[in-house]
Amino acid sequence: MSRRPSCAICLRPQSACICRAHRPDQLSTLEAVCAALARLEGSAEKFRPLLAAFDGFVAQQMSYLCRHVPQH
User: Fold this and answer.
1) CA 43, CA 55: separation in Å to the nearest integer?
2) Which residues are CB-contacts of 25 (< 8 A; sequence separation ≥ 6)?
C-alpha cells in the first residue's frame, strides 16, 4: 500500500460529530469521499449541497441526543 499514489485531503471544520473519532482531524466516510471526489474532479462546489445536507443530519442527531441522553 505504501507504494500506491496518495493525496492529502483538506479538512473542513466540524462543529459537532455524532461518532467517536480517534483523532481530531478525522472525517466521516461521507466527508472523506466528498473531499476525495472534489480533489479528483477539481471542484468542491458540486459537493456542497450533499455536505450541507449531512450537516443538517448531524445537527438533527445532536439535538436528539441532547434531549434523550440521560445526564450524569
Assistant:
1) 19
2) 11
Residue count of the chain, please give it: 72
**Which pLDDT tens digit goes with each residue over 16-56?**
556 667 777 788 889 999 999 999 999 999 999 999 999 89
If you search the block for the grid coordinates 445526564, which residue do you land on? 71
And the C-alpha cell for 10?
483538506
- Retrieve residue 66's grid coordinates: 441532547
Structure-block grid coordinates of residue 22: 480517534
Q: Angle at Cα 33 formed by Cα 11 and Cα 45, nearest 5°?
A: 70
pTM, two decimals, is 0.66
Closest CA to 12 of 46, 35, 30, 33: 35
Residue keyed to cell 441526543: 65
